[in-house]
Amino acid sequence: MVTPLGNLVWYKIFLPAWKKQFDPQRIARRMIWTEKIFELAKKKKDLKVEKLAGELIEKYLPKKESISKKVEEARQYYKKYKLIKGLAGYKGTVTGKVFYVKNPDKPPKIKNNRILVTSLTSPKLINHIKKSKAVVTDEGGLLSHAAIICRELNTPCVIGTKIATQVLKDGVKVEVDANKGVVTKLKK
Fold first, then answer.
1. Which of 2, 9, 106, 120 is 20 to 30 A away from residue 178, measured at CA?
2. 145 is catalytic
């Protein structure tokens, strides 16, 4: 049986490598679970778990400034080149109108053949992804939900853009070039 303490020990072993490999935003997402375990341990007065979770949070939770710095770099790149840059989750090039999903856990009814833009995908968006021409997300890596599902469905996908939901609004025409990992806003 897996315990919170066992998981925290596992995190303690792997977090140093992750910190070198991943950007601060991705580390922060991985630390959300640790923060929840810390809060539960405090309520239950489980001192071992509370101490280990607290140490991990103190040592590895990125400061907000480092996360916002990456977002600001993405904004500056967009201002300079008029391109939103990310990673190619699955290759392909398509043009279409944006369908913006604010909350991936409560998606609105999708319009077919649109480009799905969201902060991140969830299993509740599978039908939306199936009906989309492409998917663009703010967060994620090559093993993220969006990337895996898009590879299975042969749907072009650009992930980890950091600013797509801030720049691309519902109905805007865009070109998604997942071969290069860029999204371009087009004139109407």
1. 106
2. yes
**What's the Cα-to-Cα distance from 52 to each of 2, 33, 175, rounded to whole Å?**
16, 13, 47
Nearest to 65 by CA among 28, 100, 98, 90: 28
Query: Per residue in 56-66, pLDDT tens?
Result: 888 887 776 66
Catalytic residue among 145, 147, 168, 178: 145
Angstrom distance (rounded) from CA 37 to CA 164: 31
Q: Are residues 22 and 45 in the same domain?
A: yes
- In the chain, the number of structural domains is 2
Claim to verify: residue 163 and residue 91 sit in the same structural domain: yes
Mean pLDDT in residue range 39-52: 89
CA–CA distance from 127 to each of 9, 33, 85, 162 (Å)?
A: 37, 27, 26, 24
